[in-house]
Amino acid sequence: MSDEGIGFYLDTNSTPVYRLSNTKTNSYFYTSDFNVAMSYSNKDGWVYEGTLTSNDTQILPVYRFLNLLNNRHFYTISSAEAAKIANKGWLYETVAFYANKDAGTPVYRLLSYDKHFYTTNSNERDIAISKFGYINEGIAFYTSPTATSKPAYRLQGGNDEYFYTVSSQERDNAVNKYGYNYEGEGFYLPE
Fold this sequence. Notes:
The protein is an alpha+beta fold. It has helices at residues 34-40, 79-85, 122-132, 168-178; strands at residues 18-22, 27-31, 46-51, 59-67, 73-76, 90-100, 105-112, 115-119, 135-143, 151-156, 162-165, 181-188. The mean pLDDT is 86.
């Protein structure tokens, strides 16, 4: 390798820079665009290695993926977890919303076979575990402890999938075009 000079400067206020390495070509790729990082991850030898900056921000994006085999959605606040599943049967769709990484009302993530369920209600979590056989995967992220002007709508689809969105247009489209049942405001997001 030859030294090409300084590529960029980073501090704790910088936008995260995502690093990927290629196991086939023994090369590296850096980008500040998460969409680009997800498009490369797990394809043609590219492996996500993490970010070059530590983001001290409490409010982080929650990434939304679509399972290409069963049309169910998955949500994660972890860029590392997102990169692990990208292009391995999961299509990265978008940042679904922003949530808190470690303070507020916990949103529990539960798994039953190949579907995930997210709830802030501990009684609903416990019933899903005891009555429907869900496995508790812990806290996915945190939301606002009080009602805000940013609700995340909860819908249930015909394939027994739960879908969460902050877009009223996307909510209405899911109901009118895809037959989802609107179940109300699932939780509120930090302002």
